[in-house]
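Help needed: design a sequence for this.
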């Protein structure tokens, strides 16, 4: 049975959403790949519709995406990303290659390259040209063009040969990919044997009171801040809702095992607000 937090909030009255009294958790997390592929936040959309809506979100917020990450997480996303980079432990030997899927504006890629002493090569793959454009500008500003390349493509169908990469990272991206199960199968295919998948994603808070505070912050503060900073509250309403529809720690671990990954593990951060999932292609 789904437990309610008792925190009422009113979703935005948008074209597709009527303002209804609800609770932050009463919609429930998705329990199958089919449900994930048609869950656009709390809204159920038609087969094939979710990707277009997600693309609109990131086209809309791309230019202010990085500054919003700092505000929404009060800077914590930097620590979560650092933990992922430490776990990835990029090799300092030349030739180490990594793929950062749903890489957006390049944050993970740049950190991996710096952690390798600028020897690693990272491919940033994203379906959204606006996000990649910001990433290209950042790479140029930091002199990282020789270490990072940008590919506009879908995580569900990767344009790379089997066994190409030493590591595959995806940070706050997998829950936006409609057919997440296909994306994980593709991750397995393009990793070299011995390669590691690392996935950073919002998850289920397991600390009493923190869960209530987190719901209050997510539903009452983030969309209005999104409106003030990007002029777009609806996109941030989607982002906080999508977090609640994403499978919890154990649920996502099952998706990884189903895709073939072994030694699947996760580590909670900030009380489970975020989990770092890892698995190996052995
Ligand atoms: C929340 S952003 C994460 C960006 C970056 N990884 C970070 O941590 O800052 C989610 C990204 O997922 C991308 N995305 C959504 N659906 C995708 C798909 N099917 N294939 C590849 N990227 C996708 C979006 O375009 C967006 O850039």
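Sure. Designed sequence:
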């Amino acid at each position: 049975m789904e437990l309610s937090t008792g925190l009422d909030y009113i979703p935005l009255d948008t074209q597709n959403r009527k303002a209804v009294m609800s609770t932050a958790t009463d919609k429930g997390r998705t329990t199958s790949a089919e449900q994930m592929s048609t869950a656009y936040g709390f809204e159920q959309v038609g087969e094939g519709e979710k990707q277009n809506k997600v693309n609109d979100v990131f086209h809309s917020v791309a230019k202010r995406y990085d500054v919003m990450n700092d505000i929404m997480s009060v800077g914590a996303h930097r620590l979560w990303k650092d933990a992922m980079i430490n776990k990835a432990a990029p090799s300092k030997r030349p030739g180490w290659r990594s793929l950062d899927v749903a890489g957006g504006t390049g944050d993970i890629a740049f950190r991996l390259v710096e952690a390798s002493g600028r020897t690693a090569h990272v491919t940033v793959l994203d379906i959204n040209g606006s996000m990649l454009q910001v990433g290209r500008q950042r790479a140029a500003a930091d002199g990282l063009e020789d270490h990072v390349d940008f590919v506009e493509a879908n995580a569900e169908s990767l344009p790379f040969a089997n066994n190409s990469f030493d590591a595959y990272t995806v940070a706050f991206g997998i829950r936006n990919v409609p057919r997440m199960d296909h994306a994980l199968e593709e991750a397995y295919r393009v990793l070299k044997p011995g390669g590691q998948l690392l996935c950073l994603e919002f998850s289920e808070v397991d600390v009493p009171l923190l869960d209530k505070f987190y719901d209050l912050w997510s539903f009452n503060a983030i969309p209005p801040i999104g409106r003030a900073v990007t002029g777009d509250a609806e996109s941030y309403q989607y982002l906080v809702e999508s977090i609640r529809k994403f499978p919890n720690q154990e649920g996502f671990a099952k998706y990884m095992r189903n895709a073939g990954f072994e030694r699947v593990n996760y580590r909670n951060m900030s009380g489970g607000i975020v989990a770092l999932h890892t698995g190996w292609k052995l």
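The pocket of S-adenosylmethionine is lined by residues 51, 54, 58, 102-104, 107-108, 126-128, 131, 154-156, 171-173, 176-177 (CB under 6 Å).
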